[in-house]
Amino acid sequence: MxxxxxxxxxxxxxxxxxxxxxxxxxxxxxxxxxxxxxxxSNDSDLQLEYLKALQINNLIKNTTKKTNLGSKDAxxxxxxxxxxxxxxxxxxxxxxxxxELLNLIKKNAYKTTNKLLQIDLISLFFxxxxxxxxxxxxxxxxxxLEVFKAFGGKLEYEKFSLLPLICNFENITDFIEFIxxxxxxxxxxxxxxxxxxxDLLTNRLKYHYFxxxxxxxxxxxxLLALSKILEFKKSNNEEYLKDTLKIKAFKKPYxxxxxxxxxxxxxxxxxxxxxxxxxxxxxSSKFFEMIFTARIKANLDDYADLNMRxxxxxxxxxxxxxxxxxxxxxxxxxxxxxxxxILEKIKNGYVDENLLSEYFNxxxxxxxxxxxxxxxxxxxxxxxKEQDKKxxxxxxxxxFSKENIIKILALFNDRKNDDEISxxxxxxxxxxxxxxxxxxxxxxxxxxCDINRVLEANLSLDASLLPKSHAVxxxxxxxxxxxxxxxxxxxxxxxxxxxxxxxxxxxxxxxGSLLLNINNNKRASKTFAIFIAPYLDKNVLNDFRSxxxxxxxxxxxxxxxxxxxxxxxxxxxxxxKSNKNYTSFCEKLRSVxxxxxxxxxSQWYSSEVQKxxxxxxxx
Length: 619
Description:
By secondary structure, the chain is α+β, with helices and mostly antiparallel strands. The chain is 53% helix and 7% strand.
């Protein structure tokens, strides 16, 4: 039997989108600087340079001190980029498709949305790339979509996990029938099974029945476990079953498959007794089928995880509880009589906001859109925004309560907590991106639970409204509009001298530009910025405080003075704990800038800013 899935098991990386984009930038630089003599071959200088670049960008670690990273690592890490048609390693070239993605990355195309599909252009690119994906099996993504279409656009996780088996069926219809009532025994080699049963009866067992591509070691442990169970069948002595439980190499996936959900030893023994019951002929069939079914299930669990990571790049799949579904708009397109034509246009089209826009004039699509209250592009955009708001509200309710946000914010005070933060938020985003996301949700709580504050935060979000990271990021500042002023919030995880270099100039420049371009009906004097970081460098505080005296100008006009309020994570936590609404204290907060003008930055921060926060509960 075979499996057809996205990715490979040696590139089970977190932050997959960030990894793809960063690798493509690495290869662009690598190939441009390669000489005619350089070759992509085992342990060549080109491969070693590539591995060095991966390490510099924290995309690979050498977990084995005894051996160096080498050709196998280079091939495994770069293979998915070639499977998606982005590079040609032997030719040392970025493909046309690869250059298309490079241009999108450099233009921050995640900020631009396709008008019909309502997904960002980076997601649209990977939707196109998935349709062109090839690794031993043609049109894999299209066939997956056909299965989703047959099940109304959604699959329970168990059904979703079966998708890699699709390549074992001649047509989609047969595979869909299999999914409805899966029977893994159809993949078992009956000749091997008969040989095993005959050899078991004559006590002449061999390893080759259970041998894997990795060798005979797994088979040896299978036969060891089998011998213990057979001894139990002869003697009824439970000690043999206890010995079976001690064979660690038999635990995964075989014991785990037999004993699923059982934790107490006594109950495990009873389950093994039940499993070993019946005649030797009955038991031999049961054992053989268990081994292969457990292997298939374990492989499918592995590949389902990979599939979800890669399919998530396309922006059209959503994971909800125990279900994977296609989003509303794409499902609508799949239900048209000419959906294959649409997929072909995506597959061969140029990625931009207008791709597929001609279908707005199609009668069949117009009718489908009107059924959900959409008559034009503006309505579609607003509909998507309302759907996102509902999804985000549910996500925040279930995963990011105020108490959880406070807990996560506290973790940012120590970068040793990065792994815990990823577990609590998302494995698909870098820690700086997660920090921006958590601050945006925190501000939504401070601003009267206004869900728009998260959607307005200039973040890249996936179909489930969790954060995504990109190799080339945009501005990390959020700009929020109020009746009489604008508020800019800028967040960073930089520390010490890095904070001085990265933030002192950029924050004031962003705020200055905002003040110079502020709408006439807003008051520049009331507009200010909040700078949030776990660590606040004293000289950054001094610089921000001095900005209250500084001018900022362009060719036409100038502003005098900029107000920048520094906060650390603990300050933000205290504001959240106060349960005060921003509009109830913003006027008093602004007065902090006018107090003790003679204080230098760090002194002003401790004597006025932190004092205000401590007394906030009394405001």
